[in-house]
Amino acid sequence: MNRAPGGWPMGRDDCPIPHGTFVLLRDAIARRTGVFFDDAKCSVLADKLSELVSANGFSSFLDYYYLLQYDAAADLHWGALMDRLAVPETYFWRQPEQFRAVADFVAPAHFASFPGRPLRIWSAACCSGEEPISLAIALAEVGLMDPERIEIRATDASEALLDRARAGIYGQRSFRQMPVHLKARYFEQIGDDRWRVAPSVHRPIRWSRANLASPPDVARYAACDVIFCRNVFIYFNDDSIRETARLFSEYLSPDGFLFVGASESLTRFGLELELSEVAGAFVYVKLGRRQIVERAAAHKASKPPMSAIQRAAS
Ligand SMILES: C[S@@+](CC[C@H](N)C(=O)[O-])C[C@H]1O[C@@H](n2cnc3c(N)ncnc32)[C@H](O)[C@@H]1O
Predict the structure, then answer these.
(1) Is pLDDT above 50 for 149?
(2) What is the number of the ligand 1 atom nearest to the C-alpha of 127?
(3) How far is the CA of 221 from the centre of ligand 1 (A)?
(4) Environment class of 106 (CB within 10 Å of its CB; exposed 0-12, middle 13-18, buried 19+)
């Protein structure tokens, strides 16, 4: 049998985590964070965990698993683990049609229907802040970024990334898609490869930690008009996506909007959300009661009638 450096048996395909321990860790991580590692990603998980295992004085992944499960400071250890699991891949003006849809259509329609009621937007996996800042810029460009009228809450599970978001200082990689005139208008160069975001589009954003796999966390933020939850479900398994998206649809305000990433689809989950197009952007719209009844009726009508034999068997 192969052995990992600490003398522990190697897992499958030379993954340094023994398979039984991998399953324990993988399932605990999926339950706690939604992030799922299939068998093929065992080595990726080992890579992310090995520093934490040794930093806590262990030579085995199983001891680290027990630490996460039973230590009095387990919450702190989960926080450190979340910082390691986070994939900090984001940039300004990513899928800009979604920001434009909010600025050009969703926000004006909201103010026309509910004058005096602020538009509440939640950026639910905001990473280092590029997404909610892009939203604030899009709204500023159409003269709507008034903190009295627009509330932007930005959350992430990683406190380390939130610290970066709060600092509001970015390197060139974050601007790879941003039109130069917007960069010039909303950022000030403060070093060779460092730009600071303008307070007008940074200060109004409220940053906090929230875990999308925690129903109380989702309930706290999802009662809003627009949710951006982009490029995080790609790391979740179906059960976690279904549960988080179900909570979104439950708490989102009537006729609220949910934007997900380009490669993420929720249609297979049968949620009370309808995929629509708003000015070239695809968005899930919460179904009102009338639409739910209509959709159920259309579904029933599209099914062939049951035969007497099927009825007897059902
Ligand atoms: C690839 S980034 C996406 C950032 C941004 N939404 C975008 O589309 O550019 C994924 C983010 O999801 C966050 N994340 C992963 N699991 C999470 C969870 N359970 N709750 C909240 N955020 C989570 C990570 O910390 C990371 O910042």
Answers:
(1) yes
(2) 27
(3) 15
(4) buried
